[in-house]
Structure formats: structure tokens, C-alpha cells
Specification:
transcription regulation; 10-stranded antiparallel beta sheet; about 35% strand; TATA-Binding Protein; TATA box-binding protein-like 1; alpha+beta
């Protein structure tokens, strides 16, 4: 087994966060009274709306900005955001679905081996930081991809990046480095 051989790693996307604008002012009180699956947080000035399919939670502000969390793919995030915009239209708002953007993707990947974290950190010093007193994982940042990886000694890696493509290439990039430090 060497680092160059093709190893199929399953990358499980656990959360996709996206943002869109409605291009109209939203009356939060009306959404809270007439909408379904709604929590009105008046002290913060936002409404939380939940969809069952796809399972998404949206944070809605009166300015018309909406943040959707909980999707498991970029396509599901867009579909859920469009469903949310449609439900706001049905409440009587002049919603125009614009400026949709995936802003964050969280994924988990398990390596087929355990990792020696102190050795990994020493070999990758400028990018990796390991503070075992504070957190059990190595924090590894890839600035070019804008991705952050949390690498645990069990071989589990949590990846945060701006999109699914960046997350996948971050895992591909880190594999040879963690392979060198395997137990």
C-alpha cells in the first residue's frame, strides 16, 4: 500500500449552507402568523422556517436575505431554497429568487488507517497546528482552496470548504501527507 495507489475514500457531505435574496422586504410577523413550521425570534429580528423535504432550516431576515442550512448536496440546497422562495410567494410577497450562492460545505471522510498527529504536525508545520490541550484534532488550512481540515488520530477528517469541489480536492491533497504519518 503506497500513497500513489488509487484508494476510494467516501466523502460524506453533512451540511451545505447557501444564501439567496428575495429582492423585496419581508414582513416577519406575517410570516410567523401565516407560515407553516415557523419560529419567530423577535428579539433578534429573524424568522426560522423549516422544510421537511428536503430537510432544510432557513433563517429569514426582513431585508429579504435568506440563509439555508442542512442540505446534503448543492443541488438539494438550491431545490430547498427555491421551495422556500415559493412558499414566501404563496404568503403574498413579491419574491424574486436572486443571488443564490453556496457559501459553506461541511463533509466527513474516514481514512482506512489511524494517524500519528504529532508527527503529522511536525512534517506540515506552517499549515498544521495541533494543541492537544485545547482540541483533539490537528487544524490544517489550505489557503488556495479556502478549506480547513480537522484531522483526528482515528483517521476521521472533517473538512470545511466553500463548495463541494474544494472539499473533494482538499481531501485529495491531504491524503499523501496523512499517509506518511499513518500508525
Amino acid at each position: 500500500m503506497d500513497a500513489d495507489s488509487d484508494v476510494a475514500l467516501d466523502i460524506l457531505i453533512t451540511n451545505v449552507v447557501c444564501v439567496f435574496k428575495t429582492r423585496c422586504h419581508l414582513n416577519l410577523r406575517k410570516i410567523a402568523l401565516e407560515g407553516a413550521n415557523v419560529i419567530y425570534k423577535r428579539d433578534v429580528g429573524k424568522v426560522l422556517m423549516k422544510l421537511r423535504k428536503p430537510r432544510i432550516t432557513a433563517t429569514i431576515w426582513s431585508s429579504g436575505k435568506v440563509i439555508c442550512t442542512g442540505a446534503t448536496s448543492e443541488e438539494e440546497a438550491k431545490f430547498g431554497a427555491r421551495r422556500l422562495a415559493r412558499s414566501l410567494q404563496k404568503l403574498g410577497f413579491q419574491v424574486i429568487f436572486t443571488d443564490f450562492k453556496v457559501v459553506n460545505v461541511l463533509a466527513v471522510c474516514n481514512m482506512p488507517f489511524e494517524i500519528r498527529l504529532p508527527e503529522f504536525t511536525k512534517n506540515n508545520r506552517p499549515h498544521a497546528s495541533y494543541e492537544p490541550e485545547l482540541h483533539p484534532a490537528v487544524c490544517y488550512r489550505i489557503k488556495t482552496l479556502r478549506a480547513t481540515l480537522q484531522i483526528f488520530s482515528t483517521g476521521s477528517i472533517t473538512v470545511t470548504g466553500p463548495n463541494v469541489k474544494a472539499v473533494a480536492s482538499a481531501v485529495e491533497q491531504i491524503y499523501p501527507f496523512v499517509f506518511e504519518s499513518r500508525k
